Amino acid sequence: MAKGLTADELRTEPEDVLVTKLKEAKEELFNLRFQAATGQLESHGRLRTVKREIARIYTVMRERELGIVTVAEDAAEGKDNG
């Protein structure tokens, strides 16, 4: 997670991997907020990055829920494009 997650990368992941990544990101956000509250946080930009990663994961999950994008469609598009 050092470079951050992109929506395209997330769309190719199965649902269980998304749930795992979401859980990890939420735990990291909790730890970062705790460090910020105690004055131990050195990288404030990481807070913003983790929040955006969480939002991207939720967006991809919601797209699947609404049927906007499915994993199979993304896999087929990825093979065509590259």
From TrEMBL:
Gene Ontology biological process terms, A to Z: translation
Top-level taxon in the UniProt lineage: Bacteria
Assigned keywords, A-Z: Ribonucleoprotein, Ribosomal protein
GO cellular component terms attached to this protein's record: cytosolic large ribosomal subunit
GO molecular function terms listed in the Swiss-Prot or TrEMBL record: structural constituent of ribosome
PROSITE patterns from the UniProt entry: RIBOSOMAL_L29
InterPro entries (alphabetical): Ribosomal_protein_uL29 (IPR050063), Ribosomal_uL29 (IPR001854), Ribosomal_uL29_CS (IPR018254), Ribosomal_uL29_sf (IPR036049)
PANTHER family, sorted: 60S RIBOSOMAL PROTEIN L35/50S RIBOSOMAL PROTEIN L29, LARGE RIBOSOMAL SUBUNIT PROTEIN UL29C
NCBIfam families: L29
Family, as annotated: Belongs to the universal ribosomal protein uL29 family.
Protein name stated in the entry: Large ribosomal subunit protein uL29
